[in-house]
Amino acid sequence: MTNLIVTITDYSNYGNRLQNYALQTLLSQYDDTTTAYMDLGVDSALKSAIKKGKRLTLPIRNMFAAKKRSIILQRAQKCNAFSQKYIHDSKFELTQYKGLTAKRNNTYSRVIIGSDQVWNPQWISDQELALRLGSFASSNHPIISYAASFGTSTVRKSAVSVFQKYLPRLKAISVREFQGAELTKEMTGLDATVVLDPTLMINADKWMEVTNSFVQRNDKYVLTYFLGKPSEEQEQNIQEYAKEHDCRVRRILDLRDQETYLAGPQDFVELFSKAEYVFTDSYHACCFSILFRKQFTVFNRSGAQGKQNMNSRMDTLFELFELEANVIDSGISPTINYQRVNQLLTVHRNNSTHWLEAAMQL
To answer: Of 82, 18, 11, 5, nearest to 49 (Cα)?
Structure first.
C-alpha cells in the first residue's frame, strides 16, 4: 500500500514544509507514504528553479541590493535542501492541465488530503480546487482528509458546487478548524471531525532529530516571527522584554536580521526549541511554541483590535488549549500553565490518532 499526500507545495514556507513532513511521518507508520508535487501553474521562476536545482539570476530592483538577493537565494536553497532530504515528492506530480501523473510507473493505494489551507478557494480556480479534493482518483482509491483547512469563512458559489460534488466522495473528513467543520456541514450536510495540525502530532524529541546546530551554544534570545508587521507599540513591547531579560532579538523571515533570515525549516524548529520567549502572529509559530513549552505572546495584526482579529485556525488552536488570553493587542500575555496544556495535548493527540486509525481502515 502507498499513501499519496495531496497538499500545497510551497518550498519557501516554513509551516507548509513542516506540516508536510509531519503528516508524512504520521502516515508512514501505516504504509509507504509519498507526496504529490503540486504545480498548478502558480510557481514563480524562483520556486521552479529551486525545485529543479538550477541556478537562478534575478534582476536587481531598487528595493533589493545584491547582498539581500544573495541571502534570499541562500534561504531558498536551504528550504529546498530540507524538502529534498525529508519530503518524498518525486514520484507523482499534480498539474492543472494533466491532473495526476506518475513518474516511472509508480502507483498509489489511497489519497490523504491535507494539511494546510489546501481547500482555500480564494487563490485557485474551481478546476484546481477539484484536484485538491481528489478528483483525479478513481473509485478504487479511498480518499480521506487529515486536518484540511479552508482558510476562509466564505466560499464563492462556484466553489460550493465543487465541494458539494467531491467532498461526498471522501471516506472520512477531518479538518483543522471548527469553522471548517461548520462549512463542510453547511455545504454538504456531512460531518467533519476537528483534529490536531500534524505538526502537533509529532513530539518535541522527534522534531529535534531534524535540527542541525543552527543556534550557537549559550545564545540567549527572544524570538519573533510575524506574517504581518508589528505596530510601534508591539515592537516596543518586544524590545523592553528582551532588555529586561538580557536577551537579544532574533527575527525569523525579517531581512533586518540576516543571520536568522537564512534559517531553513529545520532551523525554524531549532530556533523555537531554544528561545527564551516568543512573539508572533503565526499559527505554526504557536504550534512549535506549544511543542517546546515556550512562553509566548500572540499579537493581533496591526490595525485590527481585539479577538475578532483571530482567524479561525488561531481561534480553534487557542480554544483547544485554553490559551485565548494569550492573544492581545499589546503588552505581554499571561504565563502559560504548561501542566494543563500538556494534559490537553495528550487528550487531543489521542483523539486525533483514534480518528486517523479508523479512517485508514476504510
So the answer is: 11
For the whole model, what pTM was predicted?
0.92
Contact 101, 92 (CB under 8 A): yes
CA dist 331 and 321 (Å) reads 21
Q: Is the pLDDT of residue 244 over 90?
A: yes
How far does Cα 331 stand from its chain's mean position? 27
Strand order in the sheet with 277-280: 248-252, 221-225, 277-280, 296-299, 327-328
| All cell numbers assigned to 23 | 503528516
Neighbouring CB atoms inside 10 A of 196's CB total 24
Are 329 and 347 contacting, i.e. CB atoms less than 8 angstroms apart?
Answer: no
- Tell me which H or E stretch contains 31: none
Place of cell 530556533: 271
Q: What tens digit of pLDDT does each residue of 280-326 get?
A: 999 999 999 999 999 999 998 765 544 444 477 899 999 999 999 99
Sheet of 99-102, strand order: 99-102, 92-95, 32-39, 2-6, 110-113, 143-145
C-alpha 125/C-alpha 106 separation (Å) is: 28
Sign of CA dihedral 360, 25, 33, 16: positive
- The tens digit of pLDDT for each residue in 143-200 reads 999 999 999 989 999 999 999 999 999 999 999 999 999 999 999 999 999 999 999 9
SS3 state of residue 189: coil
DSSP assignment letter at 336: P
250 forms beta bridges with 223
Round to whole Å and give the CA distance between 318 and 348: 13
Instruction: Quote the pLDDT of residue 301.
Output: 77
User: CB–CB of 274/248 below 8 Å?
Assistant: no
What's the burial of 218, exposed, middle or buried (CB within 10 Å: 0-12/13-18/19+)? Answer: exposed
Rounded Cα distance, 335 and 357, in Å: 35
In degrees, rounded to 5, the angle at the alpha carbon of residue 97 between the alpha carbons of residues 92 and 102 is 20
